[in-house]
Design a protein that fits this description.
This protein is α+β, with helices and mostly antiparallel strands. It folds into two domains: about 1-10 and about 30-165 and about 180-225, Orthogonal Bundle (Endonuclease III, domain 1), CATH 1.10.340; about 255-375, Alpha-Beta Complex (Nucleoside Triphosphate Pyrophosphohydrolase). It is built from 17 helices and eight strands. The chain has helices at about 1-10, 20-30, 30-45, 55-65, 70-85, 85-90, 95-100, 110-125, 135, 145-155, 165-175, 185-195, 200-215, 235, 295-300, 305-310, 365-375; strands at about 255-265, 270-275, 285, 290, 315-320, 325, 330-340, 350-355. Strands 1, 2, 3, 4, 5, 6, 7 and 8 form an eight-stranded mixed beta sheet that branches. A hairpin with a 2-residue loop joins strand 1 (about 255-265) and strand 2. The structure holds a DNA duplex (11 and 11 nucleotides).
Length: about 375
DNA sequence: AAAACGGGGGT
DNA sequence: ACCCCAGTTTT
């Protein structure tokens, strides 16, 4: 336990104040993992995926929780676990069903990758979900974090997880200002996490690190006043908690302008199935005209592409205001235009379905909300 | 090495 | 407005 601090101290403390005699003594007499496990056992939340060692259920929870808050993912976990109690059940599902159940959670490639992985596990592993890091890391949708999480939680394999919480806890406790999202930083923090790992209790250790980061060592307003390891914390000693961890600046977002056409034929609604290579892959929306800038619906109807599909007699029955929909790398300016027209022909991925059936199609949140409100169901 | 990929919540 | 969330894949 002591060797760990000696080994890391030179590298870990560079660049930040760490010079009072009292703190040195406190640090050397404290083991981070032991303290955090102790804290964890007294303060942990009761989360459903913590009460099982079923690798399938743990996988389910870990994929759902990628870049997703526990509170947001929880209802999805329950729904998936109930509908697909084993990986064999999951493997038999149509992609449309998986995406529909995933609707509203975002990062839909997670759902598509899960299906591929479930099918592979069913065929190659006879429906028995792998529990070793080396096998898990090969699977679609499972990276270093998730492989470490599943292998440690389901089989107590000594693998240290490094997620957003762990970055924060380590950066603050050891006073590391290397950016967490640089390749160099990622390597450094993984090494640090590996050395901090309690090899006697890998699962407990990993849970403790993450829970501590999520509940106490929070991004904003961390509860340092009640922190069990504050006396060993470099950031606390140098009043640098708000400055850590360091993260490289984010990319700027692209603006896009989506003009959605709502066209009905009796009780049927004209829908579109999206392709791959763009946001919302393989999901459903409405016929879409993307423009380079904001365009009034009246002008939209003059575009050659529109005339080609709808002729010149399309009538605008109604138009919504522009809705701003924010994604990580894009700002979408969306307007819905309700048309009274019978299309001359249909684009490849366009099809009619009953308004009722739209409830069963996986749609982006904002599209689903609009249709739901428009048809009042 | 950097960009792409959703949606929600906090400040 | 900006940041973050039990990250991974693609370019």
């Amino acid at each position: 336990m002591l060797h760990f601090f000696c080994k890391c101290s030179k590298q870990a403390f560079r660049g930040l104040n760490y010079d009072t005699e009292m703190d040195k003594v406190s640090l050397q007499n404290m083991d981070l993992s032991t303290e955090l496990i102790d804290w964890y056992q007294q303060n942990k939340r009761d989360l459903p995926w913590r009460n099982t060692t079923d690798a399938y259920l743990i996988w389910l929870s870990e994929i759902i929780l990628q870049q997703t808050r526990v509170e947001q993912g929880m209802p999805y976990y329950y729904r998936f676990a109930e509908k697909y109690p084993t990986v064999s059940h999951f493997a038999k599902a149509p992609e449309d069903d998986i995406l529909k159940l995933w609707q509203g959670l975002g990062y839909y490639s997670r759902g598509r990758n899960m299906l591929k992985t479930a099918q592979l596990v069913q065929q190659q592993y006879n429906g028995v979900f792998p529990t070793t890091y080396q096998e898990l890391i090969k699977l679609k949708g499972i990276g270093e974090y998730t492989a470490a999480a599943i292998s440690s939680f389901s089989a107590n394999e000594p693998r240290a997880v490094v997620d957003g919480n762990v970055y924060r806890v380590l950066a603050r406790f050891f006073g590391i200002d290397e950016p967490i999202n640089s390749p160099k930083g990622k390597k450094l923090f993984q090494q640090l996490a590996d050395e901090a790992l309690n090899r006697q209790h890998p699962a407990l250790h990993n849970q403790a690190m993450m829970e501590f980061g999520a509940m106490l060592c929070k991004p904003r307003n961390p509860a340092c006043g009640i922190c069990p390891v504050r006396l060993g914390c470099v950031a606390f000693a140098s009043n640098a908690t708000t400055a850590l961890p360091v993260k490289l600046k984010t990319v700027k977002v692209r603006k896009r302008f989506f003009n959605y056409l709502l066209i009905t034929d009796g009780g049927n609604l004209l829908m579109n199935k999206r392709g791959e290579g763009d946001i919302w892959a393989n999901m459903y929306d409405l016929p879409l005209i993307e423009t380079d800038g904001l365009m009034e619906p009246e002008a939209l109807l003059q575009l050659p592409e529109i005339v080609d599909f709808f002729g010149e007699n399309a009538v605008i029955k109604q138009k919504t205001t522009v809705i701003k929909h924010i994604l990580t790398h894009q700002q979408l300016f969306i307007r819905f235009v309700i048309l009274d027209v019978a299309p001359l022909k249909l684009k490849k991925n366009w099809f009619y379905t009953t308004v009722r059936n739209t409830e069963n199609l996986a749609m982006p949140k904002t599209i689903f909300i609009f249709i739901k409100d428009f048809f009042n169901f």
